[in-house]
Amino acid sequence: MNTLSMHPARLRIACTLMAALFLISGIRKLLTWSATVGYFTKLGLPMAEAIVPLVILLEIGGSLALIFGWRVREVAAILAVYTLMTAFVAHRFWDADPAQFNPQLNNFFKNIAMVGGFLLLIGPRSRSE
């Protein structure tokens, strides 16, 4: 069964649950702009001040698109790539001090699991596509 042909209510619930993390995260980044720039800088991201608005737009815009069912496959694909990248950039458990090892390991694999969920939302392509 194509994921996007599943029961509409189940698809809407799945999209909303997948989007909730990003909506909350994007709003928190927006409300703590300076701290977010500082955190991105600490992670070693170049041009953190330019990246922050793009990340906020992606997290809030992408989550709203999923919640409202707009271009689910495309948005899920973009968020899958973004989530995979953030796992390796922001949750480097292999570099974490002992006190942060477990939280970073859990966050890393939470991101990996989210990528799996996004891959399900992308779904298989039919032969006519």
Give an overview of the whole structure.
- This protein has helices spanning 8-31, 33-42, 48-67, 72-90, 98-122.
- It has one domain (3-122).
- It is mainly alpha-helical.
- The radius of gyration is 16 Å and the shape is globular.
- The two termini are 15 Å apart.
- The chain has five helices and no strands.
- The longest helix has 25 residues, at 98-122.
Annotation keywords:
129 residues, mainly alpha, 5 helices, 76% helix, globular
List the SSEs and their pairings.
Elements lengths: L7 H24 L1 H10 L5 H20 L4 H19 L7 H25 L7
User: How many independent structural domains?
Assistant: 1
Number of helices: 5
Averaged pLDDT, please? 92
Distance between the termini: 15 Å
- The helix fraction, in percent, is over 70%
Shape: globular
Which stretches are poorly predicted, pLDDT < 50 over at least 5 residues? none
